[in-house]
Write a sequence for this structure.
């Protein structure tokens, strides 16, 4: 049986994920097909303090169009800790207490404490949050709605799960998307629980909290 060859294009800068332009939106299938096969990737396989977690290796790719930004996560797992009675029609507060992938992204390179947070579970539950750490008492606005779309796939035989996330540009950046634009970014995953749990990062934050924006990396738009 013929198997397509996927070329792994690693980001040259370990703190930068290059997002490649695509004229057509990638399929919402959470599979490594079509334009995803040539998208550069980064890996999240360390804990919050930089300890290696090779068994939890998570590959993340990104693509962009004039209207949307996309991420594809492909994650190894040893166990899953899932919320009972999932509901995907509306966002799920507290989703971070279970298995998720997470994107923290902000367009303002100076005001680093303002960013958006997106989370998706293996079964497609989601939450989107508007974060401004200077808004004392209301740092996180969960009534904000980005208009995100997502799709997930669990391969139990291979012990992997994958997730594609579609984000409208208007929800995350005030600029017109274009080659060379940069945004602040970190990528995370949480696996297992309730105890012990794996807190998996792309850029380690040297803190118990993922909300450590001074440790974020960058997303760069390329063609």
């Amino acid at each position: 049986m013929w198997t397509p060859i996927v070329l792994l294009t690693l980001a040259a800068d370990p703190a930068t994920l290059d997002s490649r332009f695509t004229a057509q939106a990638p399929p919402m299938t959470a599979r490594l097909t079509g334009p995803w096969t040539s998208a550069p990737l980064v890996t999240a396989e360390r804990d919050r303090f930089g300890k290696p977690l090779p068994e939890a290796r998570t590959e993340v790719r990104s693509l962009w169009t004039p209207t949307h930004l996309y991420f594809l996560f492909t994650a190894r797992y040893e166990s899953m800790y899932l919320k009972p009675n999932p509901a995907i029609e509306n966002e799920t507060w507290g989703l971070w207490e279970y298995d998720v992938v997470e994107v923290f992204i902000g367009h303002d390179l100076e005001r680093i404490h303002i960013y958006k947070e997106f989370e998706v579970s293996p079964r497609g539950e989601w939450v989107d949050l508007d974060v401004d750490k200077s808004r004392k008492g209301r740092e996180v606005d969960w009534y904000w709605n980005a208009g995100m779309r997502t799709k997930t796939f669990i391969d139990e035989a291979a012990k992997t799960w994958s997730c594609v996330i579609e984000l409208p540009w208007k929800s995350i950046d005030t600029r017109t998307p274009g080659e060379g634009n940069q945004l602040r970014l970190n990528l995370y995953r949480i696996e297992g629980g309730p105890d012990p749990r794996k807190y998996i990062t792309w850029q380690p934050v040297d803190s118990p909290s993922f909300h450590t924006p001074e440790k974020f990396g960058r997303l760069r738009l390329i063609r």
In short: The first strand starts at residue 9 and ends at 10. The chain has one domain: 9-209+215-219.
